[in-house]
Amino acid sequence: MAIITLPYRYLERLARTDRQTIIDRVPMIGADIERIEEDHVDVEFFPNRPDLYSPEGVARAMRGFLGLEEGLPAYTVRPSGITFSVDPALADIRPFLGSAVIRNVNLDEEAIESLMALQESLHWAVGRGRGKVAIGVHDLDTVNPPFRYIASPRDRSFVPLDFEREMTMDEMLADHPKGRDYAHLVEDFPKFPLIVDADDRVLSFPPIINGELTRVTAATKNILLDCTGTDRRAVMTAVNIICTAFIEAGATVETVTVDGEEMPMLAPAERVVSVAECSSLLGLPLTAEEMSRLLRRMRFDAEPDGDSRVRILVPCYRSDILHDWDIFEDVAIAYGIENFDAALPATSTVAQEHPIPAIEGAVRSVMTGLGYLEVIPFTLTNERVLYVNMQREPAPGTLRLLHPINEEQTVVRTDLLPLLMEMLLANKHRELPQRLFTVGDVVEDCVTSQMAAAVSIYPTADFSEAYAAADVLCRELSLSYTVAESADPAFLDGRRGDIVVDGKIVGVFGEIHPAVLGAFDLEHPVAALALDLRAVPGYPVLPDTP
Amino acid sequence: MELTLNEKRLLVALGPMGSADAAVLAEKMDTRREAVVQYANLAGDRGLVDVEKHVARRYVPTEEGRAYMGKGLPERQVLESFEESIPMRDLQGHPLAKIAIGWMRKKGWIVIRDGVVKKTGKTSPGPDEAAFARLAESGEIADGEGVADLAKRGLVEEEETVAYTVSITPRGRELLAGGLDLREEVGTLTREQILSGEWKSLPLRRYDVTKLPKRAYPGKVHPYQRIIDEMRRILFDMGFEEMSGGIVQSSFWNFDALFQPQDHPAREMQDTFFLGERRPLPKGYERVRDMHEHGSGTSSTGWGGTWSAEKAEQCVLRTHTTSLSIQHLAAHPKPPVRAFCIGRVYRREAIDPTHLAEFEQLEGIVMDEDVNLRHLLGFLKEFYAKMGFEKVRFRPGYFPYTEPSVEPEVYVDGLGWVELGGSGIFRQEVTEPFGIEHPVLAWGLGISRVAMLRLGLRDLRQLYRSDVEWIRETPIYGGRR
Predict the structure, then answer these.
(1) Both ends of chain B: CA-CA distance in Å?
(2) Would you call A326 an interface residue with chain B, using a CB distance cutoff of 8 Å?
(3) Which residues pair with A32 in a beta bridge?
(4) In chain B, what is the greatest distance between 2 CA atoms, to the nearest angstrom?
(5) Is the bond preceding A433 in cis, omega lying within 30 degrees of 0?
(6) What distance in Å separates residue A344's CA from the closest CA in chain B?
(7) I need a labelling partner for A542 at 20 to 30 A (CA). Which of A203, A313, B58, B440 fits?
(8) What was the pLDDT predicted at B142?
(9) Which strands sit side by side in the sheet containing A2-7, from one edge to the other?
(10) Which residue spans adopt a coiled-coil conformation according to this UniProt entry (chain A) (predicted)?
(11) Is the bond preceding residue A207 a cis peptide, omega within 30 degrees?
């Protein structure tokens, strides 16, 4: 999540309002206040609004929302005359480059920190961890144009940021902290992306690390921006957001010519939207004039286009506007989500219980009637609990997680009984007798079905108790069954029975094998039963489709 | 006055003696002393006997003390091991020398000069030795002169004994003189006793109403399940149809159908449990692909790039029940639809008191002609009010598959405004590929958070690692918090 630090003094100056107004109102444009501190507030903005990941961007939005400044912010650019070339060999490595020159920056320590924070947030939200987009800022006055973005041999060396000696790019992947973090993005390519100046000096090894040469400091006056990536749209989003933030802070932006294309133009995109569609989605009877007025407060340019349409200019930094409904949401935000009157539609519908929860409910009635207590174990478990401790062979359809978090939760349960045994262990110090049951999902071969299981532990728990409980459960679920000697190794021979329906084993009951008790560290006999609820009449034929 | 048989037997035993120690009475009545005290207290409440409690402190030897018993304190033993004087070196050969020499000097029995130990002649026994001698005789001593010294040296330790003296009162005597019925009391009535009418003349044992028998524990539905059932009932009351479905979903239904871009962070292995299994894409998946790539004729630009079918086939443990909602809508694209689902969802999160890798989610969807944002707020207000949250407010929110998105917050006493779920209107990019022509209002809610608030839990894990004691002690009907 992107948590943005907003220093009050700077923000108050830019937003032209006081801190309390900002703290009170910023949640209503879509944000969560994380922490309110003496000199700043930390705010979490949503991942679809990277344009709000800087104090400058927040101030721009708040001036509009509070009615201090409306409509499209005007951003002018002029050419810098600087050119950039892109090596065609990068086509399969990291093809896209966006660039700009930013002049007259005024960077104190706080501003540098804020710029780094914006860069990191954009790496996360737009760059997807630098894979899609990686951003570099350089002190322009340390290098000479024109610049070249090339595919370089991996053994080329230069001094990376925060280091004092030259190292090869391969060495950086192994030894530089950033190299280790992002090596996975480039290590499989025969050549590495590299940005060099007219004198073949290295500016950057995107997406890994900049060179020490172009380090941005408090003395930096002019910046060269590079955004490289695998998605052109995302690269330009990052360029636009950074450039407009600098302009809001008082700098000027000049274009760079990348392979003949001049950028960034910071030009808005046009959209024409329907007033009726917006009114109907929001439940607000709006006129084109009202809708335009609301949108101008969200920093769009908006003018009625006849009575039924509104012509809109979308600022270049609003990468979240994919669809007309994204515009309508901004209408709702400008109107104030808190100002909507809640209403219920007049349509009447009929409730319907799903048969599976209905069967589960019936199991609960029967088992609680027998004095059993319901427990709700996790569905993630491990093969030791499911199979080894139970002396059973692993079910062939067991689903294994590709990347488990810990050793306790590596598979999805295929049975409930082992989890009840584990629950008895967890409750070993509680008063006996204990009678526990559970009902819920098990999964085999990607198919979810439901089971019920019950255990009873105390010095005289026995086969007859398990048999009687299994019989009650089946009878109360209208399940006609027969019983046969079971071969389930989790139970004691001669004290175990299979529940058979239509020639198929659908359940088991009996006394748990003493070796299984030992494996679960239990000290008293356990009478147990398990039943596959797919056997119950009325169970839906295609359970895995909602 | 209805005496229990045991009280009567106590009076009979006590009568001839008038007053006796409980231990003596226990022997006479052939029972335990604790039982006698219990009967005596009952009779005492009726004014038939007096019970006097004596607490006595006595001292008994420690292990070290026992070792010296009969032989005398170490300094005495060592003193007597030599005549008038002895070289220090020789004396140190005595096994008790280490303890004894210090005490002998302290008590002024000896002087040491030039490596020779010489008796002073003032060696008569002090009060500590006298006390120790008494201890040796009877195995225990009361507090007295010298005992504190022995205790300080760790030779004796204090022991508290409680004795009860029971004395019959004049009322007790009166009752005893009138004669007592000592027939055995009847506990459970037999069928014969009831049928024959014998019960009329039987002495029935009386029970003490202040004494709770062994507690009984009923079979119970888990407190969390009761909350889930309450929510289901509310949604049935609001006319919703229940959905249920599989835990394992293809990425297609879990993400792509909901217009979540294929490079979205939630689709990385850090956040979601992926499985090695794959599932074929449903018929018509191309419409979803086109929507991702270029917006498919709507006002959307799509995400751009190339959509991968292979990525969509990969199975995951569902990260939300929204994967069921969209399948339900795909199967029922015509209005009205009002459906809900409560089911377990999975997130690859490290487990701590407020985060679990699996938890329950509630989700409601409403699809109808002309439903709008105001109706979404209406359903949320109604639902939360029925859940007992009277004060609800709304803020803009963000969810990848809804637009507009709204975050509802409820007011909880003591906590203030608490964010409780998310909601919105399904994006057209989500509904259009499935031929759904009307807006879909949707909201989801992590109900384990509601359960924590309701049940006063601090650790989410308590819901799933059920402590039997906690379930037994949590009332079935708790009213509203």
Answers:
(1) 47
(2) yes
(3) A44
(4) 122
(5) yes
(6) 5
(7) B440
(8) 84
(9) A2-7, A40-45, A31-36
(10) none
(11) yes
Chain B (290-329) residues lying within 8 Å, Cβ to Cβ, of chain A: 295, 298-305, 315, 317, 324, 327-328
Q: What percent of chain B is helix, strand and coil (3-state, nearest 5)? A: 40, 25, 40
B218 has a chain A CB within 8 A of its CB: yes
> Residue B268: which pLDDT band, with cuts at 50, 70 and 90?
confident
Residue B357 contacts A where some CB pair is shorter than 8 Å? yes
The Cα A378–Cα A440 span in angstroms is 10
Q: Is the peptide bond before A146 cis (omega within 30 degrees of 0)?
A: yes
Q: Phi first, then psi: what are they for A492, rounded to 5°? A: -75, 135
DSSP for residue A388: I
pLDDT digits (tens, 9 = 90+) for B118-167: 888 888 888 888 888 888 888 888 888 888 888 888 889 888 888 899 99
Report the 10 Å Cβ neighbour count for A545: 13
Smallest CA-to-CA distance from B237 within B134, B374, B340 is with B340
pLDDT digits (tens, 9 = 90+) for B311-339: 999 999 999 999 999 999 999 999 999 99
Q: Is B139 on the interface with A (CB under 8 A)?
A: no
CA A395 – CA A488 distance, rounded (Å) = 13
Least confident of A104-118, A287-301, A309-323, A409-423: A104-118
Chain A residue at shortest CA distance from B300? A323
β-bridge mates for residue B413, sequence order = none
Which residue, A170, A176, A148, is CA-closest to A157? A170
The strand ranges marked E within B146-190 are 156-168
Cα A62 to Cα A8: distance, rounded to the nearest angstrom? 13
Environment class of residue B394 by beta-carbon count within 10 Å: exposed (0-12), middle (13-18) or buried (19+)?
Answer: buried
CA B6 distance to own-chain centroid: 39
Contacts of A176 (CB under 8 A, 6+ apart): A160, A162, A163, A167, A208, A209
State how far the Cα of A231 lies from the Cα of A128, in Å rounded to an integer. Answer: 11
End-to-end CA distance of chain A: 32
Chain A contacts in chain B segment 249-288 (CB below 8 A): 263, 265, 269, 273-277, 279
Length of chain A measured in residues: 546
Q: Are A316 and A266 in contact (CB under 8 A)?
A: yes
CA distance B368 to B153: 91
| Phi, psi (degrees; rounded to nearest 5) at B215 | -65, 145
Q: Rounded to the nearest 5°, which phi and psi values hold at B159?
A: -135, 135
Q: Give A-chain residues touching B366 at CB under 8 angstroms.
A: 345
Please enumerate in sequence order all residues whose Cβ is within 8 A of that of A530, keeping only pairs 6 or more positions apart, or say none.
A415, A416, A417, A451, A452, A453, A454, A507, A508, A509
Peptide bond into B170 cis (omega under 30): no
**Per-residue pLDDT averaged across A405-432, rounded?**
96
Put simply, the answer to whether B220 touches A328 (Cβ < 8 Å) is: no
Q: How far is Cα of residue A387 from the mean position of the Cα atoms in its chain? A: 34
Phi and psi torsions of A296, nearest 5°: -65, -30
Calculate the alpha carbon distances from A427 to A166, A369, A408, A433, A434 in Å: 62, 22, 18, 11, 9
**CB-based contact (8 Å) between A282 and chain B?**
yes
Q: Which class for B440: exposed (0-12), middle (13-18), buried (19 or more C-beta within 10 A)?
A: buried
**What are B112's two structure tokens?**
């040491």
Instruction: Look up tokens 């319901």; give the residue.
Output: A374
ipTM of the complex: 0.92
d(CA B387, CA B58): 65
Within an 8 Å CB–CB cutoff, is residue B214 touching chain A?
no
Ramachandran quadrant class, A259 (left: phi over 0; alpha: psi -120 to 50; beta: rest): left
